[in-house]
Write the C-alpha cells for this entry.
Amino acid sequence: MARPKLPNPDSIFSVIDKAGKFWAYSFIHLFLTSVATPISV
C-alpha cells in the first residue's frame, strides 16, 4: 500500500495535541465566563 509521504506524524500529532488542549481550555474558559457572567449579575 503506497502512502503519500508526510512529515513525521508523531511530531504533527504532538503539536496538534498541545494546540488542541490549549484551544479547548481557552474556549471552555471563555464559554464558562460568558455564560456565568449574565447569570451572576
